[in-house]
Amino acid sequence: MSTSSSTFARLLKGLSDIAAGLAAFGILVVVLLQVSSRLLDMSVAWTEEATRYLFVWMIFLGLAAGFRTVETARVTVLLAMFPRAIRRLSVPIYVLSSVSFFMLMGWTGYKLAWQQYAMNETAATLAIPMWLIGTIMPFSAILAVLGIIDSLKRRRHLIEILEPEVQMPELRHQNQASSSAEKLS
Known about the structure:
The protein is mostly helical.
């Protein structure tokens, strides 16, 4: 792996995984502050809203991280049942559908953040501009597309479905059971 490729991978990991971890840590701190302040009868008003926005950021950053490591939900069982010639299309199908989705999500998120900016919308108790919260959608869409590119370079074998019985043992058991049933009839 070249130096620029490993630098790209480390930067992408930092922007998605570490940022999502910081958001999760932020949620923990804010919730602990909320609980302890309520126990002391000094409820802090902004903690619920902060938790909600940190959670939104954590989810979108986690989505981008999942595509970088190819740990996202995929429907591979249907593709695995097709002949090998069609299974060879698993990578283009994965890339095309994922990139299309993230382009749509990025555009929608951009329009949402722009609308929030244009309307000068602010969070109710935090008094921060809502476009700061809304920018996570286009930001995570960009990170996810970059993650797909990184996964194609470094983890392509996890995307390809060439030998389904090897990659998905549950199909091997299913195929053995169906062939045994055919022998009995």
